[in-house]
Design brief:
Length: 401
């Protein structure tokens, strides 16, 4: 995949204001033949308080990236859901089925990945299920694992008649979309009159409460940072009425607790009167998160400086946002790195900072120390190195478990 990086200014998707203030500027070291962008500006809208990533590629670039570089295919486990997803999907079904009219309702999930959630709906008796995802591997997995049809398409390209669906699901999707206006107009068209929409997004007001790596919430993929107010605002101006809303916490791993906003909306007429709610919560939440991240980042940089001081050969496990940020902002880029490792086949065979990216199994026979460049999955990776690959390499980690 080759994407020529272009950075485009975005108007606020809520109030159409083009005046904003920069809160932070994430920077990343680009992945050769697979990079979406090397940075953007986290901004707050002066008009309504919505926080988002400005100066990012257009929606087409994001569509290509998710088609060719998806990390949601789980090819390393043949599309099977993770332990977290096995717990999460039935719980989500119990929540949303209260808002689905009946088992014959026409249901669409946007960004369904391997259709694990749709499968849980199928097991609960729902009949008319369809998924859409840009990754062709995800569509294949959904068919092979669950006999569920998934269209390989960007949302903007979906071929369906207006009013084709009674219920639409978007879980961990809206924070990824550059063209919010186009996406929500499309969703509005696809819903039947009085149709409903379920949305779950990360809660930007609680980023500080999730013990992830510093600035990890400002990833290459997450470009909209919602509070409950801003989510209600963006949906309200696009023709959706709030039916129910809640804030939810969940344990993704033994060391990571995530926080999300769940909202159910009902379609109404675009243009109906909607009064915007000024959102001060997002800016406050992001500023607190930025301050806390800086403190952790300083300690991480000190650890990296000590690790690379002797310029001994080093292997780095992980090439996602965490590593690409460290390669752009710390001395890790000057280390004597002989290989990067990642379980995602879409990364393997490419290069980061002109260093090859290899599969975990390719580590067999390599004796260099391994730096685990992840916080959420740090323990899982260490376990894989020691007990699945049965390697005796020295292991360095950046975070306390």
């Amino acid at each position: 995949m080759t994407i020529k990086e272009s950075r485009n200014s975005r108007r606020c998707a809520i109030c159409d204001e083009n005046q904003n203030r920069v809160l932070f500027q994430p920077r990343f070291s680009g992945l050769a033949l697979g990079s979406l962008m090397t940075g953007y500006d986290v901004v707050v809208c002066e008009g309504c308080g919505f926080c988002f990533a400005d100066n990012v590629p257009d929606q087409t670039a994001f569509d290509i990236y998710y088609r060719e570089m998806s990390k949601y295919e789980h090819q390393d486990r043949f599309g099977q859901p993770s332990e977290f997803e096995v717990r999460q999907f039935p719980e989500l079904v119990r929540f949303i089925q209260k808002y689905i009219p009946d088992e014959q309702a026409r249901i669409l999930e946007v960004g369904c990945a391997n259709a694990g959630l749709l499968n849980s709906l199928q097991q609960s008796g729902y009949k008319n299920l369809l998924g859409i995802d840009p990754s062709p591997i995800c569509a294949q997995n959904a068919e092979q694992l669950y006999r569920i049809r998934v269209l390989t398409s960007a949302l903007s390209d979906i071929k369906a008649e207006p009013g084709s669906f009674d219920f639409i699901i978007m879980v961990a999707v809206l924070e990824h979309i550059q063209d919010l206006n186009g996406a929500l107009q499309k969703i509005h068209d696809l819903l039947a009159p009085l149709g409903r929409l379920f949305i779950e997004v990360p809660d930007a007001t609680k980023f500080i409460s999730s013990p992830d790596a510093p600035f990890q919430e400002f990833s290459i993929e997450h470009i909209n940072f919602f509070s409950q107010k801003s989510l209600e605002n963006v949906m309200g101006i696009h023709g959706f009425t709030d039916v129910f809303s809640t804030q939810v916490s969940y344990d993704q791993t033994d060391t990571y607790t995530g926080h999300t906003i769940r909202m159910v909306f009902q379609k109404h007429n675009v243009g109906d009167k909607f009064d915007l709610i000024l959102d001060n919560d997002s800016e406050t939440g992001l500023k607190n998160y930025i301050d806390a991240s800086r403190k952790v980042e300083n300690r991480i940089h000190e650890t990296i400086n000590e690790l690379i001081e002797g310029q001994n050969p080093l292997i780095v496990w992980g090439v996602g946002t965490h590593t690409q940020r460290l390669m752009a902002t710390s001395q890790l880029a000057t280390a004597n790195i002989v290989a990067f490792v990642d379980a995602n086949p879409n990364y393997q065979g490419k290069r980061l900072n002109n260093v090859p990216i290899i599969s975990p199994k390719s580590l067999i026979g390599m004796g260099e120390p391994i730096l685990v460049s992840s916080r959420i999955f740090q323990s899982e990776i260490v376990h894989q190195i020691r007990f699945e690959l049965k390697l005796n390499n020295s292991i360095f980690t950046l975070y306390e478990d």
